[in-house]
Amino acid sequence: MKALTLVIEPLKGFGELSFGMTLKQVSDFMGEPDDQDLLDDLGEEETLIYHYDDFDISIFFEGTGDDKKLVNIETGNPEVKLFGTEIFDLNEEEIIKLMKKNKYTEVDDEILEDEEHENEKRVSFDEAMIDFFFEDDELTAVSWGNFSFDEE
User: Which residue of 72, 122, 130, 146 has the fewest C-beta atoms within 10 A of its own C-beta?
Assistant: First the structure.
């Protein structure tokens, strides 16, 4: 496993990982995952999720067979940066301000209420395809992706 730069790049990727990379390209860079899940009940394409515990990241691939591409990343790693700022040090209001400062102005939020999510809130910026998850007003995870990357 090579060193991963812990920088979120909306619509582009995470450090050296770019949306649209193949499963093999990600595996060559990151090594074998600590765990993986396969979700195949979402239609024609499968979603494969690689979990890397050392980085506290989950990497989502979509596609069929060996043609799966990196489409989403989720992390709870407190060291990640977004626009030069360690976001896990910020509260909801500060994250909204950071996103707006960087031209992402449309905010959507939702209280998640089910057995899995208690006291959890999702704050989304659809134009950046990024979601921030808060539990009891503390950032617990960030998830971002790009499903319309330029395929080579």
Answer: 122
CA R_g for the chain: 15
Is the Cα torsion angle 67, 68, 71, 77 positive or negative in sign?
negative
Which residues partner with 57 through β-bridges?
Answer: 52, 75
- Distance between CA atoms of residues 42 and 134, nearest Å: 26
Query: What is the three-state SS of 139-150?
Result: EEEEEEECCCCC
Confidence of residue 150 (pLDDT cuts 50, 70, 90): low
Per-residue pLDDT tens digits for 19-58: 999 999 999 999 999 999 988 765 667 899 999 999 999 9
Spell out the domains of the chain, with CATH numbers in brackets. 7-75 (3.30.1450), 81-145 (no CATH)
**CA-to-CA dists, residue 91 to 9, 10, 28, 108, angstroms:** 20, 19, 35, 16
User: Which residue's entry shows tokens 């659809």?
Assistant: 126
